[in-house]
Write a structure and sequence with these properties.
Fumarase C, Chain B, domain 1; Fumarase C, Chain A, domain 2; Ribonucleotide Reductase Protein R1, domain 1; 3 domains; 8 strands
């Protein structure tokens, strides 16, 4: 069955548009021009854009730029998507599109114009009541609406990321308490170093991620300042003097975010420094999580020829050829997601520096990689916390074994029995493959009670051991 079309025209001429589509001619040109990745804007970005159009219709109606029936129809059209979840499939522009995002802005304008037309009993493509440019886009430009949608979208996804990050931090704090009495050996340069408690290692993970959370929240603060109302170049041409302030207030009500009008709309229109700053904070979190995943993979290596200090929960068979093999697949997934996020930040950074004069036209790729980067990292943390972090178990016998044979104990023994005597104990420990605490007793340097006191959690805390 052949598809039916309607004919629409713009300044470049006529074009066939699918008869059932709520978008129009300019979106159709975008569909035909930007067959690049097959990737569409995330739903949170679509919704953020619709918040802007809904708010603009309301404010422009109040300020006399739109008739009340036009303003109400545009708001009702936006609510069909925002409140009822309808027509999300009508936002069809590829994420790799014309600079600044004009194709997507017009996609939103045309969908709302046609939905408004239907609400008033008119046919799709009849823009006599609500026009995509004259009414839906009134007092706006792609150059202020697109970056505003980016900032709102990032802030929305930021909330979800912080929530799961709090859960991960709480898990590591719980593990720090659970493993607090388990002595093992620290490793520097991947060589045995001084004693450490397994709980201290997990406490360090919690602190590391707490710092990254604070950096993310600090970076997110700047994103609350919007350039909406700046129109094409930040000067506010074709908008009411009160429009920018009223828009920020209305968007704050619609989104639940503490949004504010920017202090300098010209600067905000040409600079994506706030987005770049947030992307860098996101990259920092990915780097920290890479460290955590790497350490957990290493500490769980084995089970017979690796470190095997901890056990990660098994979630699936690890090999198609080696029976019984179980791999640290959740942490491998987390590593890959972190590498992806780090790469996205590089894209954001290059795009942020590519702005020229009064506009950075690379906004579409910045918005997509920031928003989708937060989303994949959030999802990866949810999976990691539920399927890995919460189920980590300590191999106490293996940790005790490493603690007893670590050459790092010689440092502690030195302060108690003297350098030469400690050296003798260590030499025999290496030759006979015996535990240093046992040999210190066997060679008469310490009693069993003294050895128990010396080789204890005291070695993992500040302080000095008294010389015997």
């Amino acid at each position: 069955m052949s598809q039916e079309f309607r004919i629409e025209k713009d300044s470049l001429g006529e074009l066939k548009v699918p008869a059932g589509a709520y978008y129009g001619v300019q979106t159709q040109r975008g569909v035909e021009n930007w067959k690049i990745s097959g990737l569409k804007e995330p739903e949170v970005f679509i919704r953020s854009y619709l918040y802007i159009k809904r708010a603009a219709a309301k404010i422009n109606g109040e300020l006399g730029l739109l008739r009340s029936d036009q303003a109400e129809a545009i708001q009702a059209a936006a609510d069909l998507v925002l409140k009822e979840g309808k027509h999300l499939d009508q936002f069809v522009i590829d994420v790799y599109q014309a600079g600044a995002g004009t194709s997507f802005n017009m996609n939103v304008n045309e969908v709302l114009a046609n939905l408004a037309a239907e609400i008033k009993g008119k046919a799709r493509g009849d823009y006599s009541f609500v026009h995509p440019n004259d009414h839906v886009n009134a007092a706006q430009s792609t150059n202020d609406s697109f970056p505003t949608a980016i900032r709102i979208s990032v802030l929305k996804e930021h909330q979800s990321l912080i929530k799961i990050l709090d859960s991960v931090i709480a898990t590591f704090k719980e593990k720090a308490i659970e493993f607090d009495s388990i002595l093992s050996t620290a490793r520097t340069h991947l060589q045995d170093a001084v004693p450490i408690r397994l709980g201290q290692e997990f406490g360090a993970f919690a602190e590391m991620l707490s710092k990254e959370k604070a950096r993310l929240e600090f970076a997110a603060e700047e994103l609350h300042y919007l350039n909406i109302g700046g129109t094409a170049a930040g000067t506010g041409m074709n908008s009411h003097p009160d429009y920018a302030k009223k828009m920020a207030h209305e968007l704050a009500k619609l989104t639940g975010l503490a949004l504010k009008p920017g202090k300098n709309l010209i600067e905000l229109s040409q600079s994506l420094g706030d987005c770049c700053f947030y992307g860098a904070a996101l990259r920092n979190l990915a780097i920290a999580l890479t460290k955590v995943a790497n350490d957990l993979r290493l500490l769980s290596s084995g089970p017979t020829t690796g470190l095997a200090e901890i056990q990660l929960p098994p979630v699936q068979p690890g090999s198609s050829i080696m029976p019984g093999k179980v791999n640290p697949v959740v942490m491998e997934m987390l590593n890959q997601v972190c590498f992806d996020v780090i790469g996205r930040d590089t894209t954001v950074a290059y795009s942020a520096q590519a702005g020229q004069l009064q506009l950075n036209v690379m906004m579409p790729v910045v918005g997509y990689h920031l928003v989708s980067g937060i989303q994949v990292l959030t999802n990866a943390l949810k999976v990691s916390n539920e399927k890995c972090f919460k189920g980590i178990r300590a191999n106490e016998d293996r940790c005790a074994e490493y603690f007893g044979v670590s050459m790092g104990l010689a440092t502690a023994l030195n302060t108690v029995v003297g350098y030469e005597n400690a050296a003798k104990v260590v030499k025999r420990a290496v030759q006979e493959k015996k535990r240093i605490p046992d040999l210190a007793v066997e060679m008469g340097y310490l009693t069993e009670a003294e050895a128990k006191e010396v080789f204890s959690r005291r070695l993992t805390e500040p302080g000095f051991l008294e010389k015997k």
